[in-house]
Amino acid sequence: MIVKSLLVEDDEYKADSLQEAMPRNYQIRIARSVSSAVRAVVEDIFDVVFLDMALPTFEKNAGSGSGSSQPQGGVEVLRALKFINKKTKIIIVSQYSGVEVDNDFVQLRDSARVLSEKYSLDVVGAVAYDFEDDGWRIDLSEVMERI
């Protein structure tokens, strides 16, 4: 069975690492900014969204910037999913120890529960990504088993 997935990640190395960790049956579309992620969830239906929380406003283009960096960019994607009432599973993947939700710092380990409750979405888990330690791969596999 093909699992249609959206990977929302602006860091190319991290996006490549995440793709390598996913099973072969995961069909992956990549969005590298808030605007491209929102466009993707509006235009298409995904079984799962892998969501980084800190994202630039726009994609980087040759000769131009990517807009302002948004520490809560992922929250904008969650708001879009709620607004259009799309039911998809969401997995938070972050390099940070927590996320900011309405000016409150939420520990990453609690973020799935808090974001699920706040936005009435199915945030199945959160994974702490680490460039230097592959332990996140095990955590990602465990969260993906809940899908």
How does this structure look, described?
- This protein is of the alpha/beta class and 147 residues long.
- It has 5 helices and 9 strands; from the N terminus they run βαβαβββαβββαβα.
- A 5-stranded parallel beta sheet has the order 2-1-3-6-9, with helices on both faces. The chain has a two-stranded antiparallel sheet with strand order 4-5.
- The protein is globular.
Q: Please state the oligomeric state of the protein chains shown.
A: single chain
Structural class: alpha/beta
Order of helices and strands: EHEHEEEHEEEHEH
Strand order of the largest sheet: 2-1-3-6-9
Contiguous low-pLDDT stretches (5 residues minimum) are none
Number of domains: 1
Query: Radius of gyration in whole Å, from Cα?
Result: 14 Å
Total of helices: 5
Q: Topology of this protein?
A:
Elements: E1 3-8, H1 12-21, E2 26-31, H2 34-43, E3 48-51, E4 55-56, E5 69-70, H3 73-84, E6 89-94, E7 98-101, E8 104-107, H4 108-119, E9 122-128, H5 135-144
Parallel strand pairs: 1-2, 1-3, 3-6, 6-9
Antiparallel strand pairs: 4-5, 7-8
Helix pairs in contact: 2-3
Search tags:
Rossmann fold, 28% strand, 37% helix, 147 residues, five-stranded parallel β-sheet
Compose a concise summary of this entry.
With 147 residues, this protein is an alpha/beta fold. It has helices at residues 12-21, 34-43, 73-84, 108-119, 135-144, and strands at residues 3-8, 26-31, 48-51, 55-56, 69-70, 89-94, 98-101, 104-107, 122-128.
